[in-house]
Amino acid sequence: MSTRWKNVIFDLDGTLANTVPLILASYEHALKTVLNQELDVDLAKTWIGRTLMDAFMEHAPDQAEDLEREYLKFNAEHLPDMVTEFEGIPQLLADLVEAGANLGVVTAKRRSVAHDTFAPANLPDDLAIAAAMEDTPVHKPNPEPILLGMKTIGADPASSVYVGDAIYDLQAAAAAGIDGVGVTWGAGVPEQVHAQPNAGIADTVDELRSILFN
Q1: Membrane-crossing residues (predicted)?
Q2: Which domains, and CATH codes, for the chain?
Q3: Residue 26, CB half-sphere, CA atoms under 13 Å: how many?
Q4: Residues annotated as catalytic (active site), given as ranges
């Protein structure tokens, strides 16, 4: 079986790894500790896919550094217990590699935190983090992280796809001139994901498999 695209680049949070409960809990802790605010879950979900500093600078610029520090402290403490596997994703990645696909991850996470996510999500340790938060000065929906990710894994736009759960993922893919595939099991609002430019939308891992393989 062959793949529709030679190069398959993935978002991490809410796409390959079930990190959304941890992310929301980390936001909840930071907002309560620093600002004594309750978490607006719907608002916080719109922050997923962006860098922490971008989100916090928008929400409370004077306390952004304190918010980031509290978020990261809570996140590191609870990551091993709160990150879980999306059933079917590890096998999908293995099958893509077996079919000859070139894989990579482009994420707004710090590289070290992204790699720490692999084990509890049952992702292969050698999966390439093609671009992480510290690698570019701007982030999704800007295309620069995806463009760097393609360069890192030696991918060309015509044979590449970016898979993600957030509207920023699909917007960044379009801006980078490559196909984007959305998934609806992460943080994104399904109706908003469907409304973005896309080469397919998957509600399940089996549907994603059908999109990625010919």
Answers
A1: none
A2: 7-19+84-212 (3.40.50.1000), 20-82 (1.10.150)
A3: 26
A4: 11
